[in-house]
Amino acid sequence: MSSERVVLVTGGNRGIGRAIAERFVRDGYRVAVTARSGEGPEGTLTVRADVTDAASIDAAFTEVEAKLGPVEVVVANAGITKDTLLMRMSEDDFDSVVATNLGGAFRVVKRASKAMLRARFGRVILISSVVGLYGSAGQVNYSASKSGLVGFARSLTRELGARGITANVVAPGFIETDMTAELPEETQKQYKASIPAGRFATPDEVAGVVTWLAGDDAAYISGAVIPVDGGLGMGH
Predict the structure, then answer these.
(1) Going by fewer Cβ within 10 Å, which terminus of the chain is more open, N or C?
(2) Mean pLDDT of 116-130
């Protein structure tokens, strides 16, 4: 029964991660979220973790395992941006974004894979972005980290696919969050003009795709990139 399953969402205290955690709670899963600060939504267990630090990830998993059981569904969502043009981008701007967005997924999934292999069941869901494949000026670091998740999921599928473990990528486009709300109205208008759907997505529209991938209906889907972008990145 999927409702018995234990889910861990990284960065589940705000934005898309929070919506994903809420949706899993609504669907009856046992849900834990990692957060550097703040709390996850009602009905979740919040554990402190920094995805750039393997020891902190290990401690977070140990706490979740003790309180909820082995993690069967992991959603690697924690991410940061440090946007600037390539000529102005510092080594740290690049390294820290890649260490969090791509390295963080590696550390979290590696720790989760132990229990998944024992259970011969697992769902790995990596939250990428439309710019991972579509590209975006001023986001060389971010888009490189997000496209890296595609190769990660596909290699993982080849390694673990025969053990009942799937690995997929969800690539959201523009989503209504605090971040997009801060954009000037004119900028928002320009963005919406480039999206065939003519609007931003709600965080719940991303969450619905994630929970579907975690469920039994998606058991034979692995190594896929699923865009939730209103048609913005078609063909990428």
Answers:
(1) N
(2) 97
Contact between 56 and 50 under an 8 Å Cβ cutoff? The reply is: yes
Which CATH architecture describes the domain 2-228? 3-Layer(aba) Sandwich (3.40)
Q: Tell me how far apart the alpha carbons of residues 55 and 47 are, in angstroms, rounded to a whole number.
A: 13
Tracing tokens 């997929």 back to the chain, one arrives at 168
Q: Which residues of 57-86 are buried (b: 16+ CB within 10 A; e: fewer)?
A: beebbeebeeebebbbbbbbbbbbbbeeee
pLDDT over 80 (residue 2): no
3-state secondary structure 35-84: ECCCCCCCCEEEEECCCCCHHHHHHHHHHHHHHCCCCCEEEECCCCCCCC
Q: Which pair of structure tokens corresponds to residue 235?
A: 């063909």
Q: Which helix (H) or strand (E) holds 168?
A: strand 165-172
**Euclidean distance between CA atoms 154 and 209, whole angstroms:** 19
Strand arrangement of the beta sheet that strand 73-76 belongs to = 44-48, 30-35, 6-10, 73-76, 122-127, 165-172, 225-228
* Alpha helices per DSSP H over the chain: 15-26, 54-67, 91-101, 103-119, 131-134, 140-160, 178-181, 185-194, 203-214
Contact (CB, 8 A) for 18 and 41 = yes
At residue 3, does pLDDT exceed 70?
Answer: no
Tens digits of residue pLDDT in 139-150: 999 999 999 999
Active site residues: 142
What's the CA gap between 103 and 57, in Å, rounded? 12
